[in-house]
């Protein structure tokens, strides 16, 4: 069995996918399984993935959203550990090493989240870029692209909820806590999130997407209230 499987969901990301894959290959992991799920793209995303030859496993499916694409990748993963990166983001140099170090340094941890840093895509029109407000400071949060987790532990919590367009990580982390999955956290910046106009902040998202986030938040709160404090235990362990 391979040690690590990396899932890359992709939808019309031909401009960025190659850079995302290159940032994964640059980690120097030994024989990683890189799974790209082309989620109904109508551009050349699949061709970009195929250009990496045997380094990448490419699977195509009808468009079902990012959760469905990630789930498809997870179900094809053979590694003992899982990691994710969106097709328009980048892992930092040493990203995997930092997360493995944090994971092995946290007693009883099943997974670890790192920090991310956002950046404006240099290809953006200057006027459009000027209209986008974002925080460039490092942030620690529950983002799929910063997660490294034992595959067995991930499956204990279950796959991503495909009914959610946003908030799927909030929902998964909530279920992971109830399933006894211990998630550590490190302040190391392990991912750079690209801001390019098509992935604006939640406040600019369609009302339906904001409703999904609120639904995921309410479900997480309800689960927490339903579980006893003793059974739930801490969600995070600092590293």
Describe this entry's structure for a reader.
By secondary structure, the chain is of the alpha/beta class. It has one domain: Alpha-Beta Complex (Spore Coat Polysaccharide Biosynthesis Protein SpsA, Chain A), CATH 3.90.550.10. The protein contains nine helices and ten strands. Strands 1, 2, 3, 4, 5, 6, 7, 8, 9 and 10 form a ten-stranded mixed β-sheet that branches. α6 packs across α7 and α7 packs parallel to α8. The longest helix is centred in the C-terminal third of the chain and has 20 residues. The protein is globular.
Strand and helix layout:
Elements: E1 4-10, H1 17-25, E2 33-39, H2 45-50, E3 56-61, H3 66-75, E4 81-84, E5 90-91, H4 95-105, E6 111-120, H5 126-130, E7 139-140, E8 147-150, H6 151-157, H7 168-178, E9 183-195, H8 207-226, H9 229-232, E10 236-238
Provide the residue-averaged pLDDT.
Answer: 86
Residue share in helices?
25-40%
Span between N and C termini? 28 Å
Total beta strands: 10
- Secondary structure tally, helices: 9
Sheet with the most strands, sense and barrel status: 10 strands, mixed
From the alpha-carbon coordinates, what is the Rg to the nearest angstrom?
A: 17 Å
């Amino acid at each position: 069995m391979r040690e690590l499987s990396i899932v890359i969901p992709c939808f019309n990301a031909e401009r960025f996918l190659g850079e995302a894959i290159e940032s994964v290959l640059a980690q120097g992991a030994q024989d990683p399984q890189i799974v790209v799920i082309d989620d109904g793209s109508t551009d050349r995303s699949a061709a970009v993935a195929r250009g990496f030859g045997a380094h990448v496993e490419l699977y195509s499916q009808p468009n079902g959203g990012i959760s469905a694409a990630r789930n498809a990748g997870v179900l094809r993963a053979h590694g003992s550990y899982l990691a994710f990166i969106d097709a328009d983001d980048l892992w930092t140099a040493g990203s995997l090493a930092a997360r493995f170090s944090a994971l092995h340094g946290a007693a009883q941890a099943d997974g670890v989240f790192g920090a991310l840093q956002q950046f404006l895509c240099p290809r953006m029109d200057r006027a459009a870029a000027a209209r986008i407000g974002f925080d460039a400071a490092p942030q620690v949060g529950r983002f799929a692209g910063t997660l490294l987790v034992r595959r067995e532990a991930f499956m204990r919590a279950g796959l991503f909820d495909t009914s959610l367009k946003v908030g799927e990580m909030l929902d998964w982390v909530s279920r992971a806590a109830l399933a006894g999955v211990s998630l550590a956290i490190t302040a190391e910046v392990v991912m750079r999130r690209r801001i390019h106009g098509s992935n604006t902040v939640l406040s600019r998202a369609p009302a339906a997407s904001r409703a999904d986030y609120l639904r995921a938040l309410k479900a997480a709160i309800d689960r927490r209230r339903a579980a006893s404090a003793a059974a739930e235990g801490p969600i995070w362990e600092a590293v």
